[in-house]
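User: Structure tokens for both sequences below?

Assistant:
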Amino acid sequence: MPGVPSLPDCLPADWRDGLFLGRVQTAAGPSPILVRHGVAYDMSRVAPTAAQLVELLPLPADAGEELGPLDMLDLPLLSPVDLQCVKACGVTFALSAIERVIEERARGDADAAADIRGRLEERVGGSIRAVVPGTQEAAALKAALIEDGLWSQYLEVAIGPDAEVFTKAPVLSTVGAGAQIGIRSDSTWNNPEPEIVLLVNAAGNAIGATLGNDVNLRDFEGRSALLLGKAKDNNASCALGPLVRLFDAGFTIDDVRAAEVELTIDGPEGYRLEGLSSMSQISRDPLDLVRQTLSEHQYPDGFALMLGTLFAPVQDRDVAGRGFTHKVGDIVAISTPRLGRLVNRVVTSKDAAPWTQGIAAFMTNLAQRGLLNSAKEKENA
């Protein structure tokens, strides 16, 4: 795809040292892979789905069919998850909380946002960054903001006891590195959301991390929070990848907590935007977000959890004071050294490659390849 780098340019800096999980499109169909010491292995005969493969970890060093060095792989990367539910957390950073209040008060009108932004940041910018969600100090700040007429449902999930956790995308609908990402054709104010994504197994344990783009429509959600589903879940509106880096002695949840996620957007007209999302500024610990997701729900196939973003683009693009919105042809690159680069090109959701392989078609493909039978035989062995 024009403007999208090749696989070697998207790999983590130390890709030969870590343990990675992913999915590739083979001639027969999608297959999960593991990458050990820089070599990719097709794991479809060990476990036909990424969700099942996760539950078998750790695996013997000789498991899988060798595909060769990862940087020489000539199979397209898919999203690294398949049967896992894709969940997302919103308003987990102070800056994103302020921006969501701006969307709400501007009713999705980008022209009205600049003035509201200035007044809100002056009043709550410092205090909201310092408060710990769910504490007595947070409750006191809430009381003060209510008295000032500045309270919002977004501030409730930013500093209240309960995190915002929602379902971002249907099973099997996410796209991977190099794929097109979709913006609704009727949206006029939108942006990427560069995030770190935790992969959680059926037992509720975070077992690795990848990068994600939680594409967001600021005009739709700003008009009403009840339009969240329409703002968040559209064709090709969630990208994950390039691979899940599995936790081990050299990469742990502390590396996630300390990560600096970089974003660049290169527009077809020569526009360039750069941003940084520092995980050290997240208001809620990543494992607390996992806990809240699991509080009264089970995920027998595990889940991917998008942790939210600090990034809220306010840099003007075309009109002074109107901030940023996507254009078709934008190249969005999300990166951090330990997880690599997730690069996608923006199109409208109508023009993005249609999602055609749902659960029934996926299972039919696995059955035709004899993979479900082999998995059942291993289970009964």
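Moving on to the next sequence.
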Amino acid sequence: MQHPKRVIALGTVLGLALFSSACGGDSGTDSGGDGKPLVGLITKTDTNPFFVKMKEGAQQAAGTQGVELQSFAGKQDGDNEAQVQAIESLISAGAKGFLITPSDSKAIVPSIDKARQQGLLVIALDTPTDPANAVDATFATDNYQAGRLIGQWAKAKFDKDGKQAKIAMLDLNANQVSVDVQRDQGFLEGFGVDVKDKAKIGDEADPRIAGHDVTDGAEDGGRTAMENLLQKDPSINLVYTINEPAAAGAYQALKAAGKEKAVTIVSVDGGCPGVDNVKAGVIGATSMQFPLKMASLGIEAISKFAKDGTKPQATAGKDFVDTGVQLITDQPQSGVEAKDSAWGKQNCWG
């Protein structure tokens, strides 16, 4: 979840903070009116490497599945209106369904409801809607497990070193997006912190937690949040970050304070810059997710639905289709399964 365009005219979409491109097959050319089922991809932005890789996966799968892909993105994370307009355009164009990474998990639900009432199959990617059953299926990383893995790794490391943790929590934003909450709470559980209210971020009753601050998932935000928390508690020695750009910013603040060697940073994403930071020792461990797989499986599901009406089924024991997560670290800990940064570099994105 870290934080590139051909524009086509689709009714009134132009000028609505919305970028759109259409491709048929993997060549990127328009498929036009050749009878192929139309499917959509709506991401939060088209600049975030995570969504760039997601679009690549959708384009590849569209070519393989013989469907026409139209893709849309807002100008920035949180641009719900652009996503609303994209859905309206896909409904008007007669799409069979679409994939969406919701910018606002609640606000987009009425538009999704309208699309489903018109017979479109709607699949959320990466970020669940609120409520989660507002879509036909969700293809995503198990974000709770992603957080739990880095929490378990950190606990094993601190136990081995005989150190008492003082934890800084660098979250996404104040809106408590589901991905943010799941990673945050997963990390705390993995580390052995009693999470009394799993619906909220910010329970600081445990003395090991120095505090929470928000980063907007960006490097600048990570640096500022880390500076704030260091002022509150200079003894911080473990930093959880919502994603790898925030981790990079946190490291800058720690280095400026002369504390980078004494503090362990953990994160989630699996982007290539993040894996490089694992190799460089900036990030102790990160949980890798697989955006290309999310999108390619999603396109396959809509293609199957267009052919025979079959809807995707959730992974056994979960309410979504789990697209996998892998812990990446060059500091393996006993009892915590992981791959090293060399494997991570071969499988990273961005």
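User: Anything stand out in the second?

Assistant: Confidence is low (pLDDT under 50) at residues 2-32.
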